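Subject: design request, 399 residues
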């Protein structure tokens, strides 16, 4: 940049010292050591606007005084504009503190002052660059926070919508009642359950676990909710048939076989306790008594849903005795109870500790109390504020 276009040094001096200051400008030019000399503009008083200069030199001559408060006002304005200020002299006025204000003796020779000003201007150039970068970062962070707030609001709305697809008031029929625990690892969940009364004798319980976490998995659960039809005009739909329909619905989603889910559907005969169920790659339901915890037989279970389009899901049978509970759960519990002193790797890995936790709940009689006790145990676990996986459990109690 040429001397004509570069902002000059603003030199402020009393009227009686202007001639000497003009000479000072010529002497500084002779000792300038970096680039072209920017030139000097001499003023007898502080200008109303400091735009158009890149540094300010204030000369305090012996016997000559600037207006009271001038130096303090100048320092404040220069600080706001990131302009360095050099005061030559030993005046008594103490300006407000600022990082780029330096006092030097009034008789500082130009050979010393010139290289000092060069260094000061170079430093200030970098300060201005950093200030610009900081302002850009501030604006970018503001945009990021706005986007985060928007995403947060949208995810909260998505969570509300997803909850509408879950069974609200849990059904009960005869001596059989149903309770549920549903805890997403974030705003929304890849877990989905339904508990419905099928007729005057049967209840149906469906629990699904879509692959992955977050919004993509949650959208899969909405598709499964729409495809779940447990009763038609012909009557109660067979558990295997229910899973067949869900399997085809997932295969029709965009992404095809990359979108899959595990699941289990149980029909409970509330008079005799008979269980008819079909499973698709899902952890086996557990029959919980006062002192025993036994998995249902899933030898004939089929593969996860959304992978094979020609698989028939087989129906299996068992029985729920009076006083027993059926725990239908997702695999998130395999990481929920890592045990005391667990390492980070153990917290992230799978284990069977949850089975011991379930077994301790055998003495709890009411299904609602069992679910509440389980939620409290999860809350006391390490990492409970952000569990690694969604947690869902449906408890069927036969009184």
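Subject: RE: design request

Done. Sequence follows.
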């Amino acid at each position: 940049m040429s001397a004509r276009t570069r902002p000059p040094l603003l030199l402020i001096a009393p009227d009686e010292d202007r001639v000497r200051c003009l000479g000072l400008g010529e002497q500084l030019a002779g000792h300038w050591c970096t680039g072209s000399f920017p030139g000097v503009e001499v003023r007898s008083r502080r200008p109303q606007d400091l735009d158009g200069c890149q540094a300010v030199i204030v000369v305090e001559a012996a016997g000559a005084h600037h207006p009271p408060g001038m130096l303090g006002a100048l320092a404040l304005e220069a600080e706001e504009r990131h302009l360095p200020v050099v005061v030559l002299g030993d005046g008594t006025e103490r300006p407000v503190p600022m990082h780029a204000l330096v006092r030097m003796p009034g008789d500082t020779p130009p050979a010393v002052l010139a290289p000092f000003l060069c260094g000061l201007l170079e430093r200030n150039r970098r300060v201005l660059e950093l200030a610009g970068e900081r302002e850009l970062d501030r604006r970018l962070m503001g945009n990021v926070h706005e986007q985060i707030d928007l995403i947060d609001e949208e995810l909260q709305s998505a969570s509300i919508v997803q909850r509408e697809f879950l069974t609200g008031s849990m059904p009960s029929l005869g001596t059989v009642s149903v309770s549920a625990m549903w805890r997403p690892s974030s705003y929304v969940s890849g877990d989905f359950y339904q508990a419905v009364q099928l007729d005057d004798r049967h209840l149906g319980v469906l629990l699904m676990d879509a692959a992955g976490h977050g919004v993509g998995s949650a959208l899969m659960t909405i598709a499964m909710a729409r495809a779940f039809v447990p009763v038609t005009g012909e009557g109660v739909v067979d558990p295997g048939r229910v899973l067949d329909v869900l399997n085809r619905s997932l295969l029709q989603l965009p992404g095809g076989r990359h979108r899959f889910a595990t699941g289990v559907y149980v029909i409970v005969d509330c008079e005799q306790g008979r269980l008819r169920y079909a499973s698709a790659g899902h952890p086996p339901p557990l029959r919980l008594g006062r002192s025993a915890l036994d998995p249902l037989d899933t030898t004939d279970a089929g593969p996860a849903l959304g992978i094979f389009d020609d698989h028939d899901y087989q129906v299996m049978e068992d029985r729920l005795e009076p006083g027993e509970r059926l725990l239908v759960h997702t695999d998130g519990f395999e990481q929920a109870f890592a045990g005391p002193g667990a390492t980070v790797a153990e917290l992230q890995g799978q284990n069977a500790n949850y089975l011991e936790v379930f077994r301790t709940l055998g003495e709890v009689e009411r299904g609602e109390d069992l679910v509440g006790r389980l939620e409290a145990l999860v809350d006391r676990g390490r990492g409970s504020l952000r569990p690694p996986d969604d947690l869902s459990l449906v408890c069927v109690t036969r009184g």
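The chain has a mean pLDDT of 86.
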